[in-house]
């Protein structure tokens, strides 16, 4: 994906967009109150034509990240704000907080590359189109806990009933993701498991490792915490749970907007227009982080994450309704009424993220293999040490 030369329109220097906008028909002009009646490319006058051309170029390149960098950063900061005091102190220093906040944008920064293998593995981790499950004979509550089992089920469904699925244009599928419907819940659970592993081997290193090994293990944990924050933020974005991610598609009896710019407006441009929200403004709405389940079984965590995503999907039509009622325009008192809804989604993301971090910490099992190896190393070193 080419980077935009229109930074004032994109506001995405840090995190270029990624998800292909599936659209039929020409772009229509977005106004704060909804859709204009014609394409901006049809505006009258030289200045109007220039602005229309610029807008069409911007929209034609639009794919989507979930929240923009600043909003993802806020989500990570919200999660940090509700960590209890028994969470490791190395993750709560000013330097660590900044590192975790910065890493909120890392998965979107991977879209700077043109390398197709990275696009193939990264893109689908940011979303799941829940409406696409039914044609595959699947339901959210029965999804397999393993990513590749799910991928196999998708392939089998396509092979068994090709008539249920639109043909894929190879020219628009260079990264081979069009046959997928997203891996977001698996990406969240897998990242939480990586974090749990990090805490496990940190404990072993704290007992028998070197200071350098402990410091490196701590940095690894901060890295995974930051990346998991991005995924938790995506899971709380209703437009990342649906086929209606860039405007409503298909049957549209409620006449919701079909404009592809809606996604970018919700991601961050609305906050740019109305004023950025800070973590400090929202942290009073959070409770202290707590473990999400008592047993720590992979299936339990997966079911909790899927249920969280399904709940955010239920906010899809309320979100579109707010736009339809001009409550997300950012104009006047009416246009600010939708801000509380978006702030609420950020709070949900921050709370879920803090709970995921805390769960990984308290449920991290002993890394018995590493502990044994470290003890063997210590014994060997003591045997080689000169005697006095």
Key features?
388 residues, mainly alpha, P1 Nuclease, 2 domains, globular
Explained architecture:
By secondary structure, this protein is an all-alpha fold. The chain has 2 domains: 7-60, no CATH class; 69-362, Orthogonal Bundle (P1 Nuclease). The chain is 52% helix and 1% strand. It has 15 helices and 2 strands. The protein has helices at 7-10, 46-60, 69-81, 94-102, 106-109, 116-122, 147-160, 184-208, 211-235, 261-274, 279-282, 298-313, 316-324, 339-362, 368-384, and strands spanning 30-31, 34-35. A two-stranded antiparallel sheet has the order 1-2. The longest helix is centred in the middle third of the chain and has 25 residues, at 184-208.
Q: What would the principal axes of the Cα set say about the shape?
A: globular
- The run of helices and strands is HEEHHHHHHHHHHHHHH
- How does the helix and strand content classify structurally? mainly alpha
Span between termini: 66 Å
CATH architecture descriptor of the largest domain: Orthogonal Bundle
Number of strands: 2
Largest sheet: 2 strands, antiparallel
CATH overall fold name of the largest domain: P1 Nuclease
Number of domains: 2
Roughly what fraction of the amino acids lie in strands? under 5%
Average pLDDT: 86
